[in-house]
Every structure is written in C-alpha cells, then in structure tokens.
Amino acid sequence: MAINRKPSETVSGILSLFPLYLTLVVNYPLLVGLLMNHLLVDARLLLINLIWLSAFMAAVQLFRSRALYRIAVVVTGIASVAESLHWLILKSPLSQSSLFVVAATNLQETVDFMNLKFGLNLLLLIPLLLVIYLGWRYKPEFTRFRFRGIVYGVVFGVFAVFIAENALGGRLVRKGIPHFARVIFSFQQERRMLHQFRAEGKVQYVEAHASVKPLTVVLVIGESSNRNHWQLYGYSRQTTPRLSKRSDIYIFDNVVAAFSNTISSIIASLSVTSPGNPVTENGRYDIFDVFKSAGFTTYWISNQAPVGVWENAVTEFSRKSDHELFVNLAANSSMESMFTRSYDELLFSPVEKILKSDEPLKFLVVQTMGNHAAYKKRYPPEYERFRGDGKKERTIAEYDNSILYHDFFLDSLLKIVETNAPESVLLYASDHGENVYDENDEAGHTFSGRLPKANVEIPFFIWFSTDYSKTMDTEEVRNRRSYPYVTDNLFHTLTELGKIETPLLKPSASLFNPAFDTGRKRILEDGYDYDQ
How far apart are the C-alpha atoms of 107 and 329, rounded to whole Å? Predict the structure, then answer.
C-alpha cells in the first residue's frame, strides 16, 4: 500500500488517536463536574485521560482492531456513567467513600440514599448515553500516513515516561491513572483491610501488661468536627463556652486526621497498620487486642447506628470489645440516622453506669454523632443560638450550633468521668473534619485533587484526673500543644496513656513519649504532604 505523504493525512492520523465520541465519553464526567462545582474538578485528570487515550488508540491502530476499540467504548462508558451520576447526585467526584455506601449496605438503603439527592439534572445523562451509542456505532479508519512510526513512537514514549516517572515517585495510583481506576484501586485496598478485621474477628492476645491499677481510659470520638469552628481554637463565635472556661484540659492545635471519612479514619487510628505505620509482622493488631491482653475490660458505646451506609465496617471493629452498646434507637440505619434526632446526651447514663462498675481496669470508646450532617438534627432547639440568611450562612450557623451542643456534651461527660473515675484519663479526637464553606465554597468532606485542610484539621484534647496527673509531666504535655501529629498514631498514644507495657508500642509514634518523632512527613489520603 502506498504511503500518503500529504500533510493533511498526517494531521488526520494524529487526530485518529482522539476519536471524537470516545474522547467525549472519557471526559464527560469532567464536563459535568465543571457544571456542578468547578472548584472540585482536578484539571490534571484531562491530561491523564488524553495520555492514556492516545496510547490506547495507537495500539488500536497498530493492531487494526475495531473489537478492541468497542471494548474501550463499553468500559469507559460504564465508568463515565458512574462518575457522572455521582457528580449529578452528590455534586462531587466519585470517591472510595461513595463506593462504601454501595458495598456496605443493602440495595433498598442505597436507593433511598440516592433518592435523597435526585433532581432533574439527571437529564444530563441523556447526552452521555447518546455519545456512548454513537461511539459504539463509529468505525475507526485504519490508515497509514507519513511519520506514522515517529508519531506512534512519541505517543508510546510519552506514555512510558509518564508511567515510569509516577511509578518511581510512588504516586502511580494517585497521579498516573484515570480517576475511576484510581478510586476502584483505593477502594479495593480499603476492602482488603476490612476483610482482614473480619477474618480475625475475635481479640488476639498479645504480650501486654498494665503497670497501673486501677485505671480508666476513655476515648471520645467526635464526628465531622472542624477545629476552625471551635471558639477554643480562636473562632469568632462563642461555640465552646464551657470548654473554654476549663483550665484542666490540654489543647492540641496541630493535629490532623489521616483520612476524611469515618471508616478509614477509625480503622487507621485504632490499629497498628496505618499510612504512617506500614504493615509489619505486627500489622494485624488493634487497640482492643492490646487493652484486653493487658487486663482491661473494654467497651464501645455509640450514638451512631450499628448498621447501614457508613458504620458497617466500624461496627465490625467495635465487636471486638467486651461490651458494645448502641443508644441510637431513632433510626433503622446510619443513613436514616442522618435525618433523625438522637442527641449525644443519651450516652451519659450508660457511661456513668460503666464507670461505677467494679472492674479495676476499663477502656471505653465513646462514639458520638457530633457534628454529622444534617447539622440541624444534632442539637435541641434551645441550642439554636446562631442564625444566618441564605443557604450558605444558614448552613454555617447550623454547624456552629451543633458545635455549641457538642461543647455542652463534652463538658458534661468530663464531669461524669471526674466524679466516677478518680484514676482516669480522657482523650478526645474527631474522626475527621468538615469543610463548611471554609474552602472551595463547598460544604461536606468530599474532595478532588488536593485535600482541603478543613477536611482533616480536627479538635484534639486530653484531660487527666487529679490522681492520674501525678503520673505525667503536665508541663511537658502543655509544651507539646503545637507538635505535629496525625491520628493514625492514636494506637500508640492510647497504649502509652493506658500505662501498658508491650512490644507493639512505637515510642516515636506516641505524642507523649520523649522519643516522639516531630519530623515525620504528614502524608495524608490525597498523597500530599499536609505541611507543604
């Protein structure tokens, strides 16, 4: 066959690497994202898509395979429909948290969840379906043109360099593959971690010894709390008046969560394995293994629903405690609990009862509803102090009101512990933060590209009873207020606060240990260094 040497043929050959319909299918979610919320669209994804598309189409041309092309139309079509649906329903890019919604619940609950967000904007799927159909009908032409070898060589060369550079830099998944593939890969990693917990099921006894008796350790897990909305951290509104008056709590202002979703955050915080603590021969152990092995009676008391969209994985984790109690009786599932009222003060009575029990060693995990959306459902009417005009200001006001109630809850809980547990320590940390129009003009904790700081900047404080404080250098604790810390090291910090001697304790990961590593790079779930 003769080689056509016309320049226009060369241009046409290059353009054949970007067939119109397939290019539109691949990039349609980005277009929808620009319409829904352009601030959450990562422009780098367009470059990634085009690099992969050009390399794939070069292979299609070389093998002269229309079947391979049609496979690409089907696969990318499915991915684009899924991503576009997510944008249209939730107004944010597809994430592994969203996949947990589907994987961790039954079909009816997933349908109900989607119905909550349904709107006429779903009509934007019709053009995508039409483009997918036209892409399927399209028959790519296989032509030879001048500089064909050079063009394909450049395409494959750029693709190889792009993949190699990201792979060698340890960021292939984060920055080197299309968004849908990245989410699926990350989701599978989290699923494997969850399956590991489910496979182990029961407490695994380890070498651990409690050096102090009696002792009560209380971990309070906040929900979706952003410290930048706490008066205690300098916020303009008086959202934490009770805690702000206390002189017996130690505040830490440089703590971040490793993840911006509950499941990943809690599992990473309470187990040895985490982003900052890679898997080792001890990677399968968690906080209940250590405290139970050291002789503690363990409790999980929660105001979140034990089954449903978000909490199934956490519930699997909580079942390793000796006693678990869920006080939220207002909802049939975690998704439903978002829209019903179950105030955290329901936790007071069971906590007080446990503290009065005779066990000399107790470890309590108290999981709150905290500041979870819907914010207005998190507090009684008498705490509606702040108001706003318009959706944005009203949302911020409702969130701040939820923190005002949370302040009441935490102050009251501290009084209960102080009254009933003379030898005790209480640590409070939120599972993750919440972006309440602090960045990107967005509310929630979804993100694309760089993780908004509001998603992970959490409140963190510790309280010691009078007797317990005698075992600590309280001045040194106060001096560590601004130490850089990530909650994926919480396992080690809690172990040390429990006065437990175990080889699983990593001194450099415990905030109160003299060997604590302040130089650790805080690489979070987006793969970026938080401090840069």
Answer: 22
pTM of the model: 0.72
Query: Do the Cβ atoms of 371 and 361 come closer than 8 Å?
Result: no
Beta strand pairing call for 500-501 and 209-210: antiparallel
- Neighbouring-strand partners of residue 209: 501
Stated as kind and residue range, the H or E segment containing 155 is helix 148-168
- Nearest CA to 148 out of 297, 308, 9 is that of 9
Query: Which token pair is 47?
Result: 């470059």
Q: Express each pLDDT in 467-479 by its tens digit.
A: 999 999 999 999 9
Torsion, Cα of 102, 105, 107, 113 (10° steps): -70
d(CA 39, CA 362): 47
461-465-468-471 Cα dihedral, nearest 10 degrees: 60
- The pLDDT, as a whole number, for residue 443 is 80
Question: Which secondary-structure segment (H or E) carries 250?
Answer: strand 249-252
pLDDT for res 314 = 72
Q: Cα(239)–Cα(385) distance, rounded to whole angstroms?
A: 9
- What is the distance in angstroms between the CA of the first residue and the CA of the last residue of the chain? 57
Question: What is the token pair recorded at 518?
Answer: 């302040």
Say if residue 214 is preceded by a cis peptide, omega within 30 of 0: yes
| One-letter amino acid for residue 83 of the chain | E
